[in-house]
Amino acid sequence: MKALSRPPVRILACFCTLVFMAAATAVWSAPPRHSEFRNVTISNTEPRRDVTGAIVDAHDGNLLFANGRYYLYGTAYGKTAGYSINNRFRVYSSPDLEHWTFEGELLKSPPDGVHYNPSVVYNPRTHKYVLWYNWYPRLWDGQVAVAVSDTPVGPFTIVNTRVKVTQAEQRPGAGTLFVDDDGVGYYIYTAIAQDHAVRVERLSPDFLGSTGQVSDVLARGCEATSMLKHDGRYYALFDNTCCFCSAGSGARVYVASSPLGPYSERQNINRPPGRNPVVAGQQASIARIPTPHGDALIWIADRWGSRPDGVKGHDFQFWSAPLLFDIDGNIAPIANVPEWSLTVRVGSGPSSQDKKPYLWPKKKDPNPLKIDPCTGAALPPED
Predict the structure, then answer these.
(1) Does residue 25 lie in a domain region?
(2) Among 27, 144, 191, 332, which lies 20 to 30 A Cα-Cα from 7?
(3) How confident is the model over 264-288, as pLDDT tens digits?
(4) pLDDT the model gives residue 24
(5) Per-chain mean pLDDT for the chain
(6) Is-above-0.70 flag for pTM?
(7) By mean pLDDT, which of 117-121, 137-141, 271-275, 376-380 is the weakest?
(8) Residue 133 pLDDT > 50, yes or no?
(9) How many distinct structural domains can be found in the chain?
(10) Which residues span the domain enclosing 152?
């Protein structure tokens, strides 16, 4: 047998370089060494409470994981009927989805009006946290506003109370933000004056306005919009208008190969054909939860009218178990489970709020509603 010759020094050097690069790539791709994971249980039958024992009052918002901590954004309705100038945007934080700390209100003395539907994302280009929200100077004069902050807890500085989206003159209604893998932002929302027509719109690089690029109308008569991306496909979810309906709403699924479509309708994951919703809730958002095996997607819905004590701010939220997708990209129907468990990433640090949470004084509504716009029932005066 012929003896193997010794490889030239150049080949050894190249081999060593490749080994080093592969090792470096493996280290770079791995989760940070300080990341910890543990099993948590999410309950859909008990009200979510903060560390003081108070019920978390954060509705029609979104859940964001940032800097190793979870942030739950939403509208605080308190004891109102939902259409008050005292609606507040609040944020709570948690290291583990189980222990929540009230971090304060998001906006510094916003203009009088009915505020709802806050949506917060992080802009990887500007390194700012960006808040888009809906509000009515007068019912139902829909406006879209934007605010920014250097931190996820704010308070956020209002940049524009009337963003010029393409449908700005059509009384824009409920909408949510979505950030693609390439850092491009989108806003999916309804146009009230066009029978609640749903569109997806591309945002400017700073997420403070629109580029004017917009999809065709996906559907009409709808609200409670959300977007997600899975396995290269883009999903838009929403269903019929609900107006704080206690029966809940469905979650139609539309799929496209690009964020602006065209979209095609698939199934409804919260309403079987000809039947009532599986979960008596209205979609708020889709959340990404980091796990040891990649991000899990959960569907969050507000269960309007579920409060046992009659306080609107105490309405329950339903958080689904992680969404399941088949080989064709279809999402499995939502299962109405009382609780579920998942191994998630947990943070090691304390609350990011190192001072007293920001609050602004309650105002006296100069023109309080006397009739509930949803039910037609007489409303008691606000406390």
Answers:
(1) no
(2) 27
(3) 999 999 999 999 999 999 999 999 9
(4) 35
(5) 90
(6) yes
(7) 376-380
(8) yes
(9) 1
(10) 47-346
Q: How confident is the model at residue 349 (pLDDT cuts 50, 70, 90)?
A: low
Which of 340, 266, 331, 261 lies closest to 41 in space, CA to CA? Answer: 340
CA pair distance 122, 120, nearest whole angstrom: 7
Asked if omega into 132 is within 30° of 0 (cis), the reply is: no
The answer to the question of residue 78 being in a domain is yes
Q: Answer whether 334's CB lies under 8 Å from 320's CB.
A: yes
Buried b (16+ CB within 10 A) or exposed e, 242-259: bebbeebbbbbbbbbeeb
Parallel, antiparallel or unpaired: strands 294-303 and 316-319: antiparallel
In Å, what is the CA distance from 261 to each residue of 179, 201, 254? Answer: 15, 10, 9
For the purposes of burial, counting CB atoms within 10 Å of the CB of 328, is it exposed (0-12), middle (13-18) or buried (19 or more)? exposed
d(C-alpha 88, C-alpha 116), whole Å: 8
Residue type, 383: D
Residue 179 lies in a domain: yes
Closest CA to 106 of 154, 38, 55, 40: 154
Determine, yes or no, domain membership for 124: yes
So what's the pLDDT on residue 26? 33
Helix (H) or strand (E) holding 284: strand 282-291
Side-chain-side CA neighbours of residue 221 (13 Å): 4
CATH number at residue 305: 2.115.10.20
Residue type, 204: S
Per-residue pLDDT tens digits for 318-343: 999 999 999 999 999 999 999 999 99
Classified as helix, coil or strand, 297 is: strand
Cβ pair 114, 134 in contact under 8 A: no
Reported as a pLDDT band with limits 50, 70 and 90, residue 34 is: low
